[in-house]
Automatic annotation (TrEMBL):
One Pfam family cited in the UniProt record for this chain: WHD_Lhr
Recorded GO MF terms: ATP binding; ATP hydrolysis activity; catalytic activity, acting on DNA; DNA binding; helicase activity
Gene source species: Haloarcula pellucida
Protein name per the record: Helicase
Record carries keyword Isomerase: yes
Taxonomic classification: Archaea, Methanobacteriati, Methanobacteriota, Stenosarchaea group, Halobacteria
Length: 944
């Protein structure tokens, strides 16, 4: 062993001779910080959580003491250690990194996941490896195999990689019970968690160990982050470049700036927040000739591995990626990270920028390129919080009942029969289920028995396997919701290009449509729903539609939004006192990581704002006609919760629905004319904070988000067989809601929506502070620059503002060939279905001659019935109101209104907006329709 290893470094001296000799051979002369801090405790057999950025030797930190223990254990037949990782892609990395150690130390390392061949599985069961790298889902299946259960009896160590990722997901909740099931087989084993920086490491440690003792080893990353926030300024070069890239000059400036950064650096990871942004930005870089690859979860495995290997080999200068690259996939050395747009959360910035550097004592450097004023202030706040270590806590899924259902079936599969209370005690040992009540558990058991998932023998208090148990269990190994994924195949080569989510195919994809994938343009030629294949052909156009990938926007936490509010308050008061923008920007830039021009751009909304400024201590309500904006710097989930309450209570007063959109700084409402400013203020001032849970439940009952979630939860209870979104109509989901309202499934769906999308306690606190005067409540009877900021600033880079002519022509032809129902609202005796292209310029009723004719979607027969009904229920009243609004539009604007109303997701309100915009030509009219259709496709499943 070399002097470099021994000299003053106790960490490696805690290991045996064989491992220390291998360290010397491998060139590990000095331990990294996590290794120095953690290896002694791990070598003693302590349970521990190691919190450190990717690239700091976390894997070796965990595995060196484990390998050392395995080398010294000579009486073991089975698997000695499990290395559990959330991504199959990480399996490949772990195997490559661990195989060298295995070969050197005489240990067998193998991988097992869903794609492992039957031959390899049999070999692992008959001759178990010393170390098995696997996924949470595969562990579920392994626990039920008779031979593998024997092999698992020897497990002494379990390492859980990326435990922060699992702690915030139902997959992690499932894994915690899986580890308790493993404990039933193997007895106590050492638990080691590897985590990126989190705000509550002790809680994640309890998640890992089931609430038992856990040593937490943290490496401070904040002091090693060097982050710059930049809003690129538009230059003459960008004006020229915009036509080449088929985009606006502002986006061209972003592409140009990032391209220059990539050219300066050796190897760059470029992170974006959504897959559609990755595709759209990738297509611009392709036009510019930038040497980068695109990497995200909907590309084929082969395409991802190819760009990973090319980047690692130095053949690519940059990798444009989504959160798929936050986890520890090994792509070699990264010397700089670029984040396009605000990272939205502190943890994401820390994980992403933390991937840069890691040569000894090297600072991780990153640049956040922002796109609008809110984005800039948000990124400044996040960068400051990251460097101070103010990271969000992991949102553990406490008590998810569909996970309980899933694991009851797992426990029955493990042994064929188990006493009910024995199963309960195993479940309750897992940290997320520490508060699971016996009554709740019994409700879930009864539900599973009724759904023929398990057999309940109440006299003997036992749960037994039945015919449906096996099928249920293997269809529900994963807690990830089951939705179809369509393969995208190139018609010319027959090769897979990538995948599309089912919701995108249903809402957007038709033959002739154009979209971006893998940074290239494709036109859809055919959709095979049976085989779930979309056939495409490549096109040369640099512009087109971008897939509406499934997934909601990354929520901005309240702490970040509050700091943006504080920035507004401090800078805004100075601006209103007459200080020049440049002077105020310099003052802010001295505290934050942005240059004066970038900060000035972030303050641009405030420069023209008169009157009260919405900030961390002020909520500003602004009115203009039917538009109400509640400016609230309290983050996504608080604003979503408060918005739902406002929408529900104002809608109740008006007897009609209230449309709502939220961002971290605004709640935008479209209210009926009878709603006044006083109504909104009254709701905010008089709603009792302790009524919020009941009001939220009321507001969710008609929301698609709850119905969609309920269908997924019901599948995990065995109540629905292999639910697919495509086959579940709104009517079907409504019936499902009515049927399951008083069941554990309903409770779980409601809990999950509240957990993921809402913040009930924080909203109650905000209402209390508003009502006590601690937070000021101000109103203005006009739209303000800050209030309007949400309308123009929140767009992701989706596709060029000027879609190419072929896309516009496709939209025009599609709508003209679509059918609508024409209904006379005067005599109500005439209705007919007709192609849009054959509708007259001024439609009129052939029976009574009236021009008050509504244009309705061809499936809207229930609307026709509602209009003609003598006595109407509440839903029919809403349908009738909508039909009359459509009729007024057609009467005023003729066929143009029919075209707008025939588009997907364009109701009377949005149709009126589209029609009333000033524009130079008809193409612009269809571009506006296309923008609205995209927005509808993106948000459809979350509408109430």
């Amino acid at each position: 062993m070399t002097d470099g290893v021994t000299q003053g470094h106790d960490a490696f001296t805690a290991l045996g001779d064989a491992v220390r000799a291998a360290l010397s051979e491998r060139g590990f002369t000095t331990p990294t910080e996590p290794q120095r801090k953690a290896i002694p405790a791990l070598a003693r057999g302590d349970d521990a959580l190691v919190v450190a950025p990717t690239g700091t030797g976390k894997t070796e930190t965990a595995m060196l003491p484990v390998l050392d223990a395995l080398v010294q254990a000579d009486d073991r037949f089975g698997i000695g250690a499990l290395y559990i990782t959330p991504l199959r892609a990480l399996n490949r990395d772990m195997r490559e990194r661990l195989e060298w150690w295995g070969e050197t130390l005489g240990l067998d390392v193998d991988v097992r996941h869903g794609d492992t061949t039957d031959y390899q599985r049999q070999k692992q069961a008959n001759d178990p490896p010393d170390v098995l790298v696997t996924t949470p889902e595969t562990l579920q299946a392994m626990l039920t195999g008779s031979k593998l259960r024997v092999a698992l009896e020897d497990v002494d160590h379990v390492v859980v990689d990326e435990v922060h990722e699992l702690a915030a997901a139902k997959r992690g909740a499932q894994l915690t019970i899986g580890m308790e099931r493993l404990r039933e087989v193997a007895g106590r084993f050492q638990r080691i968690g590897l985590s990126a920086t989190v705000g509550d490491p002790e809680e994640v440690g309890r998640f890992l160990t089931g609430g038992g003792p856990c040593s937490v080893v943290e490496v401070d990353i904040g002091s090693r982050l060097d982050v710059e926030v930049v809003r690129p300024q538009v230059t003459d070069r960008d004006e020229r470049l915009s036509s080449e890239l088929v985009t606006d000059a502002e986006t061209a400036s972003h592409v140009r700036y990032i391209d220059d950064l990539i050219a300066e650096k050796e190897s760059v990871l470029l992170f974006v927040n959504t897959r559609q942004t990755a595709e759209a930005l990738g297509s611009r870089f392709k036009e510019l000739g930038t040497n980068l690859g695109v990497h995200h979860g909907s590309l084929s495995k082969e395409a991802r591995i190819d760009v990973e290997d090319r980047f690692k080999a130095g053949d690519l200068d940059a990798l444009l990626c989504t959160s798929s690259m936050e986890l520890g996939i090994d792509v070699g050395h990264v010397d700089h990270v670029v984040q396009y747009g605000s990272p939205r959360q502190v943890s994401r910035l820390v994980q992403r920028v933390g991937r840069a550097g890691h040569r000894r004592d090297e600072v991780s450097t990153g640049t956040v390129v922002t796109t609008h004023a809110d984005d800039t202030l948000e990124a400044l706040a996040i960068a400051r919080q990251a460097q101070d270590g103010d990271v969000e806590p992991a949102q553990i899924h406490d008590g998810s009942l569909d996970t309980v259902a899933n694991q009851i079936a797992g426990l029955v599969m493990d042994t064929g029969e188990i006493r009910a209370m024995a199963a309960y005690h195993v479940l309750a040992r897992a940290y997320p289920f520490r508060d699971l009540g016996e009554a709740e558990f019994k409700e879930v058991v009864r539900e599973l028995a009724e759904n023929n998932v398990v057999w309940l023998d109440e006299e003997r208090d036992t749960l037994e396997k039945r015919r449906g148990t096996w099928q249920y269990f293997y269809q529900n190994l994963s807690m990830i919701p089951d939705e179809a994924t369509y393969e995208v195949e190139d018609v010319a080569s027959g090769k897979q290009v990538g995948t599309l989510d089912e919701r995108f195919v249903v809402n957007f994809a038709t033959p002739g449509e154009v979209f971006v994938q893998r940074g290239e343009m494709w036109r859809i030629t055919n959709i095979d729903e049976e085989e779930e294949v979309v056939t495409v052909s490549p096109i040369e156009d640099p512009a087109g539609e971008v897939p509406s990938w499934t997934g909601s926007e990354i929520p901005v936490p309240e702490a970040v939004a509050q700091e943006v509010g504080e920035l507004r308050r401090v800078a805004g008061s100075q601006l209103q006192d007459g200080a020049p923008v440049d002077s105020v920007a310099s003052h802010v830039a001295a505290r934050y990581d942005g240059d004066r021009e970038t900060v000035a751009d972030g303050l641009s909304q405030l420069a023209g704002h008169e009157g009260p400024i919405p900030d961390d201590e002020t909520v500003l309500v602004e009115f203009h006609g039917r538009e109400v904006v509640v400016n609230s710097c309290h983050g996504h989930t608080v604003n979503e919760t408060l918005g739902r309450i406002l929408s529900a209570l104002l809608g109740q007063r008006a007897g009609s629905s209230v449309a709502m959109e939220v961002d971290p700084y605004r709640i935008e409402l479209e209210v009926p004319r009878r709603i006044t400013a006083g109504d909104v203020i009254e709701v905010l001032e008089e709603t009792a904070p302790d009524h919020i849970p009941a009001l939220v439940e009321l507001s969710l009952k008609n929301a698609d988000a709850l119905k969609f979630k309920l269908a997924q939860v019901a599948t995990k209870f065995g109540s629905l067989k292999r639910w697919r979104g495509r086959g579940s109509t709104d009517f079907g989901r409504d019936r499902l809601l009515a049927a399951l309202e008083d069941t554990p499934m309903y409770e779980e769906a409601m809990r999950e929506v509240r957990h993921e999308d809402l913040a009930i306690e924080a909203t109650a606190t905000l209402l209390e502070r508003l009502q006590s005067g601690e937070v000021a409540l101000e109103t203005v009877a006009e739209r303000t620059p800050v209030g309007l900021g949400g309308r123009s600033s929140g767009r992701e880079l989706l596709s060029p503002e000027n879609a190419d002519a072929s896309v516009i022509q496709t939209v025009r032809e599609r709508i003209q060939s679509d059918r609508v129902i024409l209904l006379c609202l005067h005599c109500q005796d005439w209705d007919r279905k007709q192609q849009v292209g054959r509708v007259r310029d001024k439609p009129e009723c052939p029976k009574c001659g009236s021009t008050r004719v509504a244009a309705l979607n061809p499936w809207a027969d229930e609307v026709v019935s509602a209009v003609r009904a003598d006595e109407k229920d509440e839903d029919q009243e809403k349908m009738t109101e909508r039909a009359y609004r459509a009729g007024s539009l057609v009467q005023t604007h003729g066929k143009q209104a029919v075209v707008a109303l025939a588009a997907r997701g364009v109701g009377p309100h949005n149709a009126a907006r589209i029609i009333n915009r000033l524009r130079e030509d008809e193409d612009e009219f269809y571009r506006d329709i296309l923008r609205q259709e995209r927005e509808y496709a993106r948000t459809q499943s979350f509408w109430g």
